[in-house]
Specification:
The complex is a heterodimer of chains A (about 150) and B (about 200). Chain A has about 150 residues and is an all-alpha fold. Chain A folds into 2 domains: about 45 residues, no CATH class; about 60 residues. Helices cover about 70% and strands about 0% of the residues of chain A. Chain A contains 5 helices and 1 strand; from the N terminus they run H-H-H-E-H-H. The longest helix of chain A has about 30 residues. Chain A is rod-shaped and about 100 Å long. Chain B has a domain of about 100 residues: RNA polymerase sigma factor, region 2, helix turn helix motif (Rna Polymerase Sigma Factor, Chain: A), CATH 1.10.1740. Chain B has 8 helices and 1 strand; from the N terminus they run H-H-H-H-E-H-H-H-H. The N terminus of chain B is likely disordered. The relative contact order of chain B is 0.10. The chains are: A mainly alpha (about 150), B mainly alpha (about 200). The interface between A and B is large, with 46 and 70 residues.
Chain lengths: ~150, ~200
């Protein structure tokens, strides 16, 4: 048997042969080559053992109760949507009432500023979070993960 | 081309498509089935990418959330695993970039690392122990590979995905999958050569 491997032989094909991923003609070519080449046969046997070893390895995975996030079902998504809608309506109503009260109610300028400043801060924070969420959902790279 | 998993794969694929459609329609039980059938693959791939059990659990849970978050847009006729594993990979890369982790350290079980368990293929305890030792050495060598070699070894040799599925996950041509896989295997072989010789004799 030959120990000289022709330089034209592409050893990459050994992996394809091991994985049964070659065309019929390449498969036959590698099989014939392995009958004649000690060096490639040794490589092939080694990668075959490595694959068998990897396939027979089991990892100590998490128990089922360690998955603390259960998938969101239709009911969960619906209640979340409803919750957000109610929060937005509530915030709009409270803001409108607060601004109206700040404009017409208290005599003191300090009281007006406290109400106006607090409400404006809340609205700005809410708008800022909303803009971030909208922007990230538009640029979310996982959105276009192969459909 | 290999046609070694035709009828079973087709049947499984049809069942999975039905499950995905039911899950998309809001069937809670179908979503649970889908989650149970996928989360271990997500965890194991994450384990290979991060090298640490807790990180892998966190990453795979995040991937599952994104997976279910975008399930409505998924084409149910396509296989689920490549899609989920691609999410895992993207998350792992984002995480590595964010934390500037360029390599992982193989950890022992006591340090929170993964515990590699041998499958008892032989009634001979000595052979089982030897196999376990080889499995641990192989795992340590895999964690020492470059990330792009590690991921291709994980997908093919540990998770048993086809070249087409790997090509879809890594977004590289099929020929590149084969050449990258062979380079990774050659690197592992170089690292483990003595140990593999003993395994042959075992």
């Amino acid at each position: 048997m030959s120990t000289n491997c022709p330089t034209s032989f592409d050893q990459t094909l050994l992996s394809g042969y091991l994985d049964h991923e070659l065309t019929q003609s390449d498969d036959q070519r590698v099989r014939l080559h392995l009958e004649d080449c000690d060096r490639c046969r040794r490589v092939f046997l080694d990668i075959e053992i490595m694959r068998e070893t990897a396939m027979s390895t089991r990892f100590d995975g998490p128990a089922d109760d360690q998955w603390d996030e259960s998938p969101k079902g239709g009911l969960s998504l619906a209640t979340r949507g409803l919750g957000w809608t109610m929060v937005v309506i509530w915030l709009a109503a409270v803001t409108a009432f607060g601004l109206w009260h700040a404009a017409t109610g208290p005599e003191s300028l300090i009281e007006k500023l406290l109400i106006f400043g607090g409400l404006t801060g809340c609205v700005l924070l809410f708008v800022s979070v909303l803009i971030d969420r909208i922007r990230s959902s538009r640029t979310d790279r996982y959105r276009e993960v192969k459909k | 081309m290999a046609a070694n998993h035709a009828p079973t794969a087709v049947a499984l694929s049809a069942i999975q498509s039905q499950t995905v459609r039911a899950a998309q329609a809001g069937d809670v039980e179908a979503r649970e089935i889908l989650a149970r059938s996928c989360h271990r693959a997500a965890f194991h791939f994450a384990l290979h990418l991060t090298g640490h059990r807790d990180d892998a659990l966190e990453l795979s849970q995040d991937a599952m959330l994104r997976f279910f978050g975008s399930l409505g847009r998924f084409d149910a006729s396509r296989p689920v695993r490549p899609w989920l594993l691609r999410i895992v990979r993207n998350l792992a890369r984002d995480r590595a970039r964010r934390m500037r982790i360029r390599r992982v350290e193989p950890l022992d079980a006591d340090d929170g690392g993964p515990i590699v368990q041998p499958v008892d293929l032989s009634p001979n305890p000595e052979q089982t122990a030897h196999r376990a030792q080889i499995q641990r050495r192989l795992w340590a060598a895999v964690l020492g590979l470059k990330p792009r070699h590690r991921e291709v070894i994980a997908l093919r040799d540990y998770l048993d995905l086809s070249y087409d599925e790997i090509s879809e996950i890594l977004h590289i041509p099929r020929g590149t999958v084969m050449s990258r896989l062979h380079r990774a295997r050659s690197a592992l072989r170089k690292h483990l050569h003595g140990a593999l010789g003993k395994e042959v004799g075992a």
